[in-house]
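Write out the 3D structure for:
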Amino acid sequence: MSALTFHYKMVDSYWRPIILIEVIYKRSSIKHEVLIDSGADYCIFNAEIGEVLGIDIEKGDRLQFKGIDGVEQIGYSHRIGINVKGITYNAIAVFSYDIADMSCGIVGQLYFFDHFKINFDYQKASIVLRPK
């Protein structure tokens, strides 16, 4: 399969590696922007995204995690699908009430970096994903 190219998005006067994906649960889906974060272990979304998809958030496995600020947060893991420009795969994502409402999600090492070889080019403000 060929490479997928995206452009960084300007947020708060900085270029960020943010892309649009589709989050899928059963027969529901929602398009949502995510930050590609090489420092994140998990794919993390605001719980509201999960609720829109019909997920009973607190029925997932409870997980504690820390953001860059070091503050401990609580989330619940659920099996979902992720679609990136026509490439769909199964994933486990964490949904949390502790992160900003409808904020940009995060895709991390597990269930994103393990599916793509990723090339960040800040000077060109581009991200290239190559399916593994």
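The helical segments are 47-53, 109-113.
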